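User: Please run a holo structure prediction.
Assistant: Happy to. Please share the sequence and the ligand.
User: Here you go; the ligand is oxa(dethia)-CoA.
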Amino acid sequence: MSQTRAAITAIHGWVPEYVLTNKELEKMVDTTDEWIMTRTGIKERRILREPGKGTSDIGAEVVKGLLEKSNTKPEEIELLICATVTPDYAFPATANIISDKAGLVNAWSYDINAACSGFLYSLETASRFIETGDYKKVIVVGAEKMSMMVDYTDRATCVIFGDGGGGVLLEPTQENYGIMDSILKTDGSGRIHLFQKGGGSVKPASFETVAAKEHFIYQEGQQVFKFAVTNMARVSVDVMKRNGLSSEDVNWLVPHQANLRIIEATARRMGIRKDQVMINIEKYGNTTSGTIPLCIWEWEDQLKKGDNLILSAFGGGFTWGAVYVKWAYDPR
Ligand code: UT7
């Protein structure tokens, strides 16, 4: 009997309307459009500004879009996994709230926190549920309201991040398509280079943590940059080798969108041409767990059944990984 695989049968993305441009940032901090474009490749990013709205509102829009596109009823979904580092609350899980807002009355749901690799960690996890044969419809969402922890007086971080998210519906297939293989890694010693210092159990929120700005993103950019380039390329090459894929066999590299220079360096090391790479960092910046599904969503019309995609990410933790996906449907 052939193996049951998890196929992506629908993809959807959602970003808030408000566009924060480099020109606008020039008025807020000591920066220039030229510096931001040259050093990161970002022109603008989206911000969820409405008071009272959180990451679950982004996730719920993604889920509703997925259901509509795939003619699926909300009650058919059995499991929802949400990758996020910007949950609505410390608890309950944002996935629980998305389920409520999108009417997923029969799904159980939980969050995965793996920073920028969150979508890949969640995709791998979800695909295992499908492969058991026990689950027929699982949704994976990567959603972030990064603006909640960005210090808009810190030019080193405020130019990078944006809000938004995307997700996929996974269903079983007996054909040789879907989530084919993955290599996922963790190195917790990297936490000192990229984290939120305050608000957790080590340093609960206090007047002192607020005064010291410890609820914002702390990032040592150059350190993270070096680790990102080396590790994203290494796992991507390893997953290609393990599956006998040459750079010509790869139709699309879908890299986490943290910095255009990291994306280009990763592609170079993999022997991948620029026209084989999905890049939309210019429009959305770094939406952490949202970047990879947002890319695939925007490229959906160009994807054909059988295309080989390498999804690759690196982020806080450190976490990183690469997932090999064989695309399972032709453009609708
Ligand atoms: O997604 C999670 C994983 N995160 C990443 O992968 C991010 C990896 N890191 C990066 O993308 C880059 O390191 C950054 C975009 C964060 C920074 O770029 P960089 O080329 O590494 O700049 P730098 O930190 O080395 O700073 C160079 C200079 C500094 O000035 P001095 O000390 O040379 O005078 C900074 O103060 O650029 C300055 N600078 C800026 N100047 C204008 C930093 N941010 C800005 C800015 N505008 N926005």
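The two ends are 30 Å apart (CA to CA).
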